[in-house]
Amino acid sequence: MKRLQIGITAHDFLNWSGGIDFLWTVNDSLLTSPRSETADFHLIIPDSGIRFFWSRVREILTGKIPARPGSSELRDNFLEFGDRISTHRVDTGRNAIRRIADRLNLDVLLPVMHSLGRNFPRPWVAYAYDFQHKYFPDNFSAERIRARDRHFDDLLTEARAVIVNSKAAASDIERFVPQATARVFALPFAPAPRRDWLEPRPEILARYQIAPPYFIICNQFWAHKDHATAFEAFATVAKSNPDVSLVCTGLTGGAMDPDYARGLLEPLERVGIKNRVQILGLIPKRDQIELLKHSCALIQPTLFEGGPGGGAVYDAVSLGVPAIVSDIPVNRELPQDDRIVFFPARNPGTLAARMEEQLRAPRVEIEPEALQASGRQRRARCGEVLWSAIDFVL
Description:
By secondary structure, this protein is α/β, with parallel strands linked by helices. Helix content is 43%, strand content 16%. It has helices at 17-32, 50-62, 71-78, 94-104, 132-135, 142-158, 167-176, 202-207, 227-240, 260-270, 285-293, 310-319, 348-360, 368-393; strands at 4-9, 39-46, 85-90, 108-112, 124-127, 161-164, 183-186, 214-218, 245-249, 277-281, 297-300, 323-326, 340-343.
């Protein structure tokens, strides 16, 4: 019996840590299924070739070199899979994907963020991230909004199947792209800790000069992440809790307002607690995880996400870390869990109250084996949906 050849395409996923995490989750979920024993997996990384070279030259000449994890971090992450997945370096663009697919005789490619076209010679499963531009158009230029509309129209009318991160995203496809013909597969919430995350790394906290108690926010500094509400809530909590601090990780340069993060700190400076908020910027993933593990709770004040809670809550749940989460519809898809509590979005008063409650609550530690077992169950459910999407296009 011929072994199924599956291509995991990293094109368009290297520019942000969440993209690398998503690729890891897709591959891990597929490998959790017994069906993976009859398949070979190929990670396709666009980091070599003429098109790739000239794209980097243009970035250097224009001074627009993005802060991003890059292909080396992706390869390092996938080392945990060992010989269960092989790695192939290719150029950027659809033609490079076609050439590697032909050379490896791939049966299917996923997740594909930009359409490969109706006539692409190999089956492929698309990935649609979110429709933030429909809810927060002020976060985008008019040109960018038009480009996103064209992107989703092409993707969802040219792909046979598409995976999304939430039921909310699936509903948005019906609402905003009624002409879509792709079969939609909504992935279940499937956090799971990586093995090395559960190992203690106290030297990481020492390196950043951080000591409990502290709350943590792990979001890029984009306006829709609503750090402002969290900072206002922290200012309230800080008055009666002089030892508590707030740690923030994530890129600090928003696309529409590069001074956004700096402006957030001005109110804290006026009340004399700016030194109790540590903005670390984009740090290595493993460092972020260790800081998350030792926090009082994750704060997720976001106003929009493509998946429940975003990547930050995904990681917190995988580690058994409490999370205080805005009650936007997509976040209400989070599973019932005593460690997840909600507050009304944009409501700093209620958020502050939830933070005070968390400071008083006893910390309940979960054994690493239990965290791993729960994660495996979630990944198995996610794998079933992914294999269903693959079966649909084959």
